[in-house]
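Table S5 (text form). Sequence records supplied for joint modeling of the two-component complex.
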Amino acid sequence: MIYFIEDSINGILMGSIYGLTAMGLTIIFGVLKVVNFAHGTLLMVGMYVAYWTVTLTGLHPYLALIIVVPVMYVFGYYLQDIVIKPIFKSEKNVREPITVIIVTTGVWYVLDNLTLMLFGPQYRSIQNNPLQGKMIEIGEMFISVPKLWGAITAVATAFAVYYFFQKTRTGRAIRACSLDRDAASLSGINQYKIYNMTFGIGTAVAGVAAVTLVPFYNIFPSVGVLFDIKGFIIVVLGGLGSIPGAIIGGIIIGLIESVGPQFMTATWTEAIVYGLFLLVLFVKPSGLFGVKYDW
Amino acid sequence: MKLNRIVTASVSAGLLLCGLILADPVLAGEKTIKIGNIIPLSGPSASVGQQGKNAREMAVEEINANGGIKSLGGAKLEMLYADSESKPEKGVSEAERLINTEKVNVLTGCWNSAVTYPTTAVAERYGIPFIVPVSVSDKITEQGFKNVFRIAAKDSWWTRDQFSFLKDMEKEFKTPVKKLAFVYENGDWGKGFASQWKKLAAEAGYEVVLDEPYPSTATDLSPVVQKIKRARADVLMLVSNAADAILLTNTLAAYKVKLKAVVASGGGHADPSFIKAAGKNARFIFDIVEWETDVNKPGAKEINAQYKDKYGYNLTGEAVDAYLSMYLIKDALERAASLDKDDIRKALADTHLTSGPGMIVGYDAVEFDASGQNSHASLVMVQINDIGNGLERITVWPKIARRPGYTPVFPKP
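The corresponding structure-token record, covering 708 residues in total, follows.
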């Protein structure tokens, strides 16, 4: 029983972090209606920014947020503005522009290989950081401190983003764009500026996720791919475009991955995750929290 | 039909002619012995191919400078290189060319097992001795060939040596090991190792308390670590790629899993970035490798220094075996005192090489069994530890190769 509780806690904590890694994906999809294949790569960029910030300044890994978030926001903003926007404009009559998806795939390859060239294929981790390997021990039970911090950050980020979209003027403008971009434009909202900002926000959230990962995970050029696939499953499970859906989807995956191996070999849990993915697509294609009718 | 017949006839005539030329006795007064080397000099394995080439060059320069092959009137060794590009078909055609056009006396190569396998068949057909310094696939020496001689340990010996090591450690430190946990990446490599481990564990009477494959792409390995912890194993045996090796090592440390030893299988644990990324958590891990620069054999340090001076980096397992292969050829030629391919083959089959500059490997002798496998070949076990110079890999097994003054830490504190 204690094992079950211990595994469930680990699953919820790790799952919330998975949810956070997928949140940027869901934000960008919700507004731009574009599946961003470069999302894992943006996470990777965030991890390198966090890694260098912490290694060079010796800051606490979470203080790196002060640098990582604005850097990633600006990076995402201009990535959309310079690389993706022109494609958007040339396809403005198409509701879900396929070409943009291909461009994001291009961004993924270019950034991954650029990182490989600049920093080499080495695996890095932040040595001697105050969170590394820390555990809360309650009797037999171990709870990972860096994962706990990560899970708290994930929930806090979800609330912050949700509040921003619901309550602020910019947030409402973004939602307006997501509902009907033409009507939003007619009301005087600069559609492309909103896209830039949304992409920036999505990238910044990927940066937050990166910060939660670096205290206990490795950093290497293709690290994004591992989280990319998981991210897609999570957002489909939770509903594309839904922020609470991302966190809940992440926790479901985390629980399967963490509790499952105690009853079978770890490789089987992957099969279960993909099986669940297919099942959701069959039964409820819009996901747990997705909107049933598309606008 | 007719055309076919003509082609067949001319091809067989050509082959016959080749055979006649090859059968020709060596002309008196010829002063060089041609050695053909088929190695990957371009393509994905180019860096390891270049290491093998450098080591061969260095050995041959030494042999020639010391008077060549004395029993053949001081004949010199002449090196011919062919690039396999790691492609089996390229290896085969280059072997044909080296044998028929260049008339080599001995062939060596090819590093990639997939290239060595078909290429040795060409050498066998022409009866040219073929020395395989490194290509680990078991099947290369299981073809029933008479002309193939392999220096390196084969695949199945890696797992065999891990178990011999474990037995020796138990004896040396009087610490009984009963329960083993097998955790391995879910690919050909990991599964292959695990299936041999299971057999060996049953033979040696160990209890296997955990047999757990995991996906190498896993983003969280704490569930696997929990299983290891709850299985209460004495020794954990691993097959991992780099990212998962680091993650496992760090997670094992975080969960304070108590083990008497962790035995790894090269791969990710031998990756240069492993020690850096896992840091002090990597301490006391045992890993199996072909060769390590600190191996306790006379001349090893000097030869490594000489090599590093010349080419800028340390000898690797591949380089050491390539280096040894040249001294093996020299040894066989001295005893054969003839350039007849059958005499060379017989001399190679009778090899009992125990000394000389080539013997910087971790074992005592080179001797070939009936299949052409060097029966003494073994691997070395290293332990990652910090003895004042930062974390490093220290050779601990077999005992004759152990770094002087070092006592392995077993069981893990």
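Note: Chain A has one domain: 14-224.
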